[in-house]
Amino acid sequence: MYGIEAINLKEIVIALNDLLTAIYGVETRLSDLLINIGFDKTQVESLRKYHLQQVVLNFMDNLQQKIMTFHDGERSYKIISRAA
Fold it and tell me: pLDDT tens digits for 27-58?
C-alpha cells in the first residue's frame, strides 16, 4: 500500500464516490457501502474522522484486485486510478 497526502485524500474520496455513483446508477458514497455492510452511523463517522486514509487505501486495494480479474484489468485499473 502507499500513503496519500491529505490534500489528495479528499480528491480521491470524491472520485471514489463518483465511481460508486456511476456503478450503482444512483448517488452512492463510500459511507453508504459501509452502512450497507453493517456499520452504524457512529462507526462510519469514527472511521471518517480517524481512519479515512486506511479505509480509502483498503477500498482501492480491493477494487484493484477485483478489476485485475477482468479481461484487460490492468489497463482498466490504470485508467481508473489516474482519474482518482
Answer: 999 999 999 999 999 999 999 999 999 999 89
